[in-house]
Write a structure and sequence with these properties.
The complex is a heterodimer. Helix content of chain A is 16%, strand content 48%. About 13% of the residues of chain A have low confidence. Chain A is globular, with a radius of gyration of 19 Å. Chain A has 1 helix and 10 strands; from the N terminus they run αββββββββββ. The longest helix of chain A is centred in the first third of the chain and has 22 residues. In chain A, strand 9 and strand 10 form a beta hairpin. Chain A has a single domain, classed as Macroglobulin (MG2) domain (Immunoglobulin-like, Sandwich), CATH 2.60.40.1930. Chain B contains 16 helices and 4 strands. The longest helix of chain B is centred in the first third of the chain and has 16 residues. About 2% of the residues of chain B have low confidence.
Chain lengths: 136, 387
Amino acid sequence: MSRKIKVALVASALLFACSASATAMCGSGLAMTAESETNYEVSMDAGGEKISTGEPLSVDVAICSNDDVVVDRFKLDATMPAHGHGMNYVPEIKEQGKNQYTASGLFLHMPGKWRFEVSFSADGKTHRFFRDVDIE
Amino acid sequence: MMVTRRNSICFVFAAILMWLGPGLITLPVAQVILTGDKIKAIKRHGPWPPVFEEDPSNRVSGSALAVEFGRKLFLDPSLSRDGDVACVTCHLPEKGWSDGQETSKGISQLDRNSQSLYNVRNNRWYGLDGRTDSLWAHSIGPMLDEREMGTSPEAIASALAQDAEYSRMYEQVYGEPPDVSDPQAVMVNAAKAIAAFQETIVSWRTPFDDFRDALANGDMEAAGTYPQDAQRGARIFFGKGNCSLCHSGPMFTNGEFADAGMGYFVRPGEVDTGRHGGIEKLRASPFNLSGKFNDNPEQASDWATRQVALHPKTFGEFKIPPLRELTQTAPYMHDGSLATLEDVVRHYSEIDEERLHADGENILRPLKLSEQEIADLVAFLESLSSF
């Protein structure tokens, strides 16, 4: 096998691996961190726009698992841990498909570090995830 | 008189400089003492003025005819029950569109300070407790309040229908004369015209805006002409004072509510519930943006009304006021109990943490400012006014 063919094969394998990995990603946004051990992955996506204060915000959340489980009792909230307060509004949650949700009417009224918190029930347990975002 | 050799040299040097002209004489360079994050934060407090956007919930927003009709109604006391109270009674142009009193007086004495109408169109909530979600709905409140104008939808509709000038103006704006058989609709339309007028009350550019724009344009020489004491005050405002967390954006408010450690009692045994009571009134109002009087068919603007949370911490919270044209709108705070800007700064400098909600903002701490810092912060606040 020539050197050129070997390089092409390695490149093809790498491309395949990368595309397979992208397909396996949970959602398209920011990965959220699990508070404890879990079989689930969660991502949140604010529409690709930079999250800022002073404007109502919608966030898409995807919950992924290798098991064919449908989660329920989905909740999303945002708090400022350093200030000891959350939002002044209750997000409106809509299910968009299997284990996919949109939370709208979030309003981050101060600049600083906000913690997005997601929880849901599955396998008889409550699973909690979070993601810190610095807002200007 | 002895002329020394050194003095002679100085005279010659001075004469040469004078002859060459002042262009060669370099005065001390004005400096920008703020850096990094603080400059970034300052840029977010402009530009000014903002672009006018019509209120989608008010179909006559931005209409010149409505503005003129609304201006006439705003100034007219004859619409009140006793014929001697108008909107302008508590919102005087010469007092920064407030009234200069600790607490206002309509037909009878009220418990809160009159808020300035400068830039009032840019709010999400109206009133110190945010009891209304549109400028037109907020304009209805004083008309019906027994302590303010004490009138009724029927009286307003009748007055507009019987007055030839008002009837003509109403028809010009709304395409039909006032229908006394539907007094509530006539009253709402009158309020929408009053709101259209109030939308025109916009404050001027200020020394701060020139400073902010110079920073945004990278013109540090122009920015350096902003007074040094105001810059030192800005360093506190955007820094250790944490003021800009709540007083953010071009309006210098995030439009929300906070507990600022003021008293809750309006008189012995009676408290002002602030935002908590405001949310309850908002939800009960037929004039909120979720109701039939919202002219926006999609009612997209009512998200905040539907989703606002009635947290226990809202008890005793009051609107975070905008800070533009502050020098015209003394006294300060929801009850008008602080007479000067210096009093306000001293209040935050020595704030009594015992008076703050245990579950409220964990931001306010006594700043323990020095006398120089207090003067600097006041200088900064004064630079948010145009005169």
